[in-house]
Write a structure and sequence with these properties.
By secondary structure, the protein is mostly helical. It contains four helices and three strands; from the N terminus they run αββααβα.
């Protein structure tokens, strides 16, 4: 007796959640930022002593700097409580970001941006937990920065900081595009 033919038909993929990137993709992006950040910091720790500098170009150095504070050394001179404050802030921000990723999975640029921010925040939290401070190693300097920064040296930063900044730019771009679509 011949087998019965199947009467099911193939349906095109559903719109909406099925065609949006999963939470795993965004968390994977954050993890990639964390790993790249920690790898580069490990290389710097292995190659440089605190305060060492290697001139790469006329405007860029690799350095080893420690920052116990936040951006631009905010609260760096505090008595030590800031370490745990920034660890807690990073944990709360990461939880909020995961919630936002779950709530808005269809907003790709938004999710991309906040994934970068989360990866950068966690990368710096790892430093605070392991070392008590953040390891910075990228240093740019230009004469036009001299009125704002001593000698024209922009404060040293790291891959985590760059990811946070790129994520913030992505959030601004996402909002501008959202407002433009609303017109």
């Amino acid at each position: 007796m011949p087998a019965a033919k199947s009467t099911t038909t193939l349906r095109p993929p559903a719109r909406g959640r099925a065609s949006t990137p999963s939470l795993a993709l965004w968390l994977g992006l954050a993890l990639l930022v964390i790993l790249l950040d920690q790898l580069t910091k490990t290389l710097v720790i292995g190659r440089f002593e605190l305060g060492d500098s290697l001139t790469v170009t006329s405007y860029f150095n690799l350095v080893r700097a420690h920052n116990a504070g936040a951006a631009f050394s905010f609260l760096a001179g505090a008595s030590g409580w800031q370490r745990w404050f920034f660890v807690g802030l990073g944990a709360v921000a990461s939880g909020f970001i995961v919630w936002m990723l779950r709530k808005h999975p269809e907003q790709r640029l938004f999710c991309f941006a906040i994934s970068l921010i989360m990866g950068g925040a966690v990368g710096n939290v790892v430093d605070r937990l392991l070392h008590g401070h953040v390891i910075d190693f990228l240093q740019f300097h230009w004469a036009f920065l001299a009125p704002m920064f001593p000698g024209g040296f922009f404060p040293s930063f790291n891959i985590a900081d760059a990811a946070i900044t790129a994520g913030a730019v992505g959030l601004i771009l996402d909002e501008l595009l959202r407002v433009r679509r609303g017109r």
